Amino acid sequence: MPLGVFDSGIGGLTVVRALRSAFPRRDILYVGDTARVPYGNKSAETVTTYSREIIHFLKKKGADRIVVACNTASALAVGKLRESAAVPLHGMIESGVEAVLAVGGDGPVGVIGTAATVASGAYQAALSHVRPEWKILAQPTPLLAALVEESWLEGEVTEKVVRHYLEPMMREKIRVLVLACTHYPLLKGVFRKVLGSEVALVDSSEACAKSLESTETKVLEKGELKIYLSDEPGPFFGRVENFLGSGSVGSIQRIVLESVG
């Protein structure tokens, strides 16, 4: 049975990339809600409604577990939908927190993501719950996803934007930076240049794949990836490779998501 994955757009393909590396023989169904992207500026009720529709679609396609590869949906919707989903739901927040704990140390922790993810307080609450003594610095960084969408993955402009966002955290001498958006792993080179090697980067995509290792069963056949987008695929073809990296895609097609009561 396939593993379902979804995000508001194609940024969640960084999670698919990590999952394919960890589970190369697992069939994966990916839904990118490109007709309604972004989720970061929408209400919790709207994000929950959209997530419910996508979960319904993936279950109809046979997914036996679903990864919510969207930090905004993980923060705003997963808790509400876990019971009704009737299949295991894996959000990004729990695995991200586990990865921070694995780094160790006592210094401040930085979190960057969409305005909705940061405003939800989900990462801050989860980190404070396990380590109440930690100082958590959370910063919305809305321009970074746009830079990735335009393939501005390096260069002076991107570096200046990143530095502007991270300067307050650098003054506080953070020891870990949580990349709480699926677009941000593509900017790791810039983060390293700005922060230096002493600050650990927690990639929520890699953390999610690692957290699934103990629950996944071995599959003998080579896995296939099918991508479903809620808008015309054409404008996204060129960007899929940036997010996904090397590896074949079984198909990319447009879908219409059904309203779920």
TrEMBL record:
Domain of life: Bacteria
GO MF term (any one): glutamate racemase activity
Statement: the UniProt record of this protein carries the keyword Cell wall biogenesis/degradation: yes
EC number(s) reported in the record: 5.1.1.3
NCBIfam families according to UniProt: glut_race
Similarity-based family: Belongs to the aspartate/glutamate racemases family.
Record function comment: Provides the (R)-glutamate required for cell wall biosynthesis.
Record-level GO BP terms: cell wall organization; peptidoglycan biosynthetic process; regulation of cell shape
Name of the protein this chain belongs to: Glutamate racemase
Keyword terms: Cell shape, Cell wall biogenesis/degradation, Isomerase, Peptidoglycan synthesis
Organism, scientific name: Verrucomicrobia subdivision 6 bacterium BACL9 MAG-120507-bin52
Keyword field contains Cell wall biogenesis/degradation: yes
Catalytic reactions on record: L-glutamate = D-glutamate
Active site: 70, 181
Gene for this chain: murI
Binding sites annotated in the UniProt record for substrate: 7-8, 39-40, 71-72, 182-183
First and last residue of the signal peptide: none
Pathway: Cell wall biogenesis; peptidoglycan biosynthesis
